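User: I've been trying to design a sequence by hand for this structure and keep getting stuck. Would you show me what you'd pick, starting by listing the structure so we're on the same page?

Assistant: Good idea, let's start from the same input. This is the structure you sent:
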């Protein structure tokens, strides 16, 4: 932490008095802007804590403090100095022991919770907890840390098998192995999509039949009579990686599930929330096939899927997160079916990701699509994949909304030829 020099250089004070609830946001990527705005509208003072002096939210938050988030002593000292009522973990690189120290004070509450924050950074631990401790339905799975280990897994489990990076995201780096000759290409593909700086490990799963990948957003808050868990309408999603390396993730809401499957999904989310002592917004990732539901993971920062709710729900996922943090009443009313396409940069080194000079024209053309909206992102957040643009559309049903969102994305894609 920079101390007095850091405060004078990176802090912006707002003199609204001491009565505002103080929230420290650990990590200040661009997608946190909607959350910051929602918290401020509800009267909170938001402090962005990040390792960069020019983080994306510097001009939006009430204060900005530069701290090494991965250093236990430095982060613990910063939290002790700031004395926030809530500490919200919004980064993958946060010192876990510092969170424990903060929670042990009894004054500061950690969101999504200390255990939830730790396991969010440990996908392997989360999957083992879900299967071994909670007994959640999952596809049979194994972890491998080398090509040789993956060969042993395939020999033991048989084919077909799905392989993906443990530390990956967005659905990229996946392969389906159906024969021995597929093992090495699957390993190389998964490793190439792993987050830099993380252990080289892959998740191998027996292929199970499913209709769609589904995200179930839930918000966990403290009500007057105890914990309350509210659910949003399920969101279907799929990832498409083009031959040129461009990645697009499609979302649509609602994803229609049978009442049996929906009840099973909510039960899984409730068990995860209790086990991890989660607070605020989180997402349970599922594979759904008819009435069958398989647990696939937990995302305590489901910002990508939450972007869709900006147009489909009365309260967006960001507003639900703000209310969940502060312990306020929520509602998850959906006001319109909708769809979104999130466009990411190529992974290839040196690939152009800047917008063309004619960006205004492309955006104008995209907005001629009925019930459409767009977002053009201007900053990256240190991930190998950079969010470039978002195409949004609503409609009378998801079929129409998805077609409109595809049309918007095609037009918007002119910005990144």
């Amino acid at each position: 932490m920079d101390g007095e020099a850091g405060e004078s250089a990176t802090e912006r004070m707002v003199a609204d008095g001491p009565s505002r609830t103080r929230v420290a946001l650990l990590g200040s990527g661009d997608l946190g802007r909607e959350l910051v705005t929602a918290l401020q509208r509800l009267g909170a003072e938001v402090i962005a804590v990040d390792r960069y002096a020019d983080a994306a939210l510097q001009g939006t938050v009430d204060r900005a403090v530069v701290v090494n988030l991965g250093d236990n002593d430095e982060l613990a000292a910063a939290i002790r100095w700031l004395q926030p009522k809530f500490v919200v973990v919004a980064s993958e690189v946060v010192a876990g022991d510092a969170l424990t120290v903060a929670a042990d004070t009894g004054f500061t509450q950690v969101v999504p919770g200390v255990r939830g924050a730790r396991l969010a950074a440990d996908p392997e631990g989360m999957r083992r907890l879900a299967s071994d401790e909670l007994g959640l339905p999952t596809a049979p799975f194994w972890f491998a840390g080398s090509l040789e280990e993956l060969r042993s897994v395939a020999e033991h489990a048989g084919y077909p098998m799905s392989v993906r990076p443990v530390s990956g995201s967005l659905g990229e780096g996946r392969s389906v192995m159906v024969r021995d000759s597929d093992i090495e290409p699957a390993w190389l593909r998964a490793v190439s999509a792993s987050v830099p700086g993380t252990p080289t490990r892959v998740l191998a799963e027996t292929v199970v039949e499913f209709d769609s990948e589904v995200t179930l957003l839930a918000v966990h808050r403290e009500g007057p009579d105890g914990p309350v868990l509210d659910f949003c309408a399920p969101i279907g999603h799929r990832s498409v990686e083009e031959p040129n390396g461009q990645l697009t993730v499609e979302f649509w809401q609602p994803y229609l599930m049978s009442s049996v499957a929906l009840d099973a999904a909510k039960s899984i989310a409730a068990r995860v929330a209790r086990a991890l002592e989660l607070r605020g917004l989180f997402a349970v990732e599922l594979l759904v096939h008819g009435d069958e539901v398989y647990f696939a993971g937990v995302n305590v920062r489901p910002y990508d899927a939450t972007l869709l709710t900006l147009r489909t729900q009365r309260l967006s996922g960001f507003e639900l997160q703000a209310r969940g943090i502060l312990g306020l009443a929520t509602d998850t009313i959906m006001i319109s079916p909708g769809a979104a396409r999130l466009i990411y940069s190529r992974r290839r080194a040196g690939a152009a990701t800047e917008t063309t000079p004619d960006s205004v024209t492309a955006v104008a053309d995209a907005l001629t699509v009925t019930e459409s909206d767009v977002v053009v992102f201007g900053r990256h957040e240190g991930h190998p994949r950079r969010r470039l643009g978002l195409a949004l559309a609503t409609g009378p049903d998801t079929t129409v909304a998805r077609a409109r969102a595809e049309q918007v994305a095609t037009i918007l894609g002119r910005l990144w030829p």
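That's my pick for every position. To get oriented when you compare it with your attempt: Residues 3-17 have pLDDT under 50 and may be disordered. Residues 374 and 391 are 5 Å apart (CA to CA).
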